[in-house]
Amino acid sequence: MNPTFEEFALAVYPFLDPQPFHRAYYRVLEAFAAGRIRRLMVTMPPQHGKSVGASTLLPAYVLGLDPDCRVAIASYSGSLASRFNRRVQRIIESHEYEAYFPETAIKRGSKPPGYIRTADEAEIIGRRGSLLSVGREGALTGNRVDCFILDDLYKDAMEAHSPVVRANCWEWYTSVVRTRMHNASRELVVFTRWHEEDLIGTLAAREPVVVLRAWAQLEAHPADAWLHLDFEALKTGPPSEVDPRLPGEALWEAQHGAALLEAKRRLDPVQFEALYQGRPSVREGLLYGMNFAEYDELPPAIVRRGNYTDTADTGDDYLCSICYAVDSEGTIFVTDAVYTREPMEVTEPAVAEMLLRSEAREAAIESNNGGRGFARAVQRRAPGVRIGWFHQSGNKEARILSNSATALRLLRWPRGWHRRWPDLYAHLTTYRRQFRANRWHDAADAVTGIVEREAVVGGGRRLKELRFF
Asked: Would the pTM of this model clear 0.90, i.e. be above it?
């Protein structure tokens, strides 16, 4: 009986200490090796073991299951691909491997003669299988491939952000990789994201992609669609069977903890969203970027304290509630915020406590999608605050885009706000001008709502009529 992929990995690499996400990763790779998945995308943060699984252990496992399989490994350079190849060969030579897969063997020294074994190619003795490695844009003339593994096709940010390199990579993929594959071929694309138009982004724009959330998808997956296994460094989505973490939890706390990841996010939120969260953005296409002004202390001339709350539209959306103070010149100073996807039983007391803590006199709550009921519940918990509700009928895209310059001009955020509200900070600083490219609009929508209520136009504030209880 063949070993599971995890059993195999621990036998040939006993020094491994697989974490829960590694075990999930190995389960998916096992389904790929068995042929239950033909097209697989894996995105994972740097230094989390993606290449050990995909480009070192997996090729050896595939050849053990099927010694007639022709496996090819590709990377951004021939030398890196050769390094993967040599590691796979060393595994196949090991006694542990032979105990599991005695029919899969490669040439040792000069014996047996007539078989190829180099740093870039090895043939399985007595079978039709082989292991081939190639650098990006390398030739594969005359080589049919049954299983293609493409790992890190971009060396660094400079390559990934080069239109010439991306175009050459795409041309190589379509003219070389795809032409060497047949109906039963499998392909795995695994790397850290750098750019929205990298190979994964380009494929996703042209072919169907299904995100893996439940284990049943491994058995019932459309053959023509890519299955996408996406591990964020810091969890943002709801828990799933494949990734049961709660929002905010690190993927590998012992090695790359949440505190370390937050520090990396503060250095460059745009790059962090790409490398660690798998959501690349082009800096030139950002709506706000890192251009929000910050403040150290509130000015003495505060004339008004308020709140704007945008309740979550769906279960995947964020509730965004922002308290602020306005000075005599009309500058808006954010003082506190609740930005979360927790259920109403958590957000209702959290918002009420924030309103009291911030000494807000009035709160405007969008009544769309249950907002009126939320406003009534908050009013009961904060009777000293005037809670008003209104229906937002304006086009969200038009509102956000047309008010973005005013938001940058008027809003001030407390210094260090990236530490207090990391998700809020990330979603605003990486928000795209191309509206449909954004996954979440909640933060931008709330900021826009504040501007619409507080900005002075034509000598007066642009107030929407509120209904009070």
From this structure: no
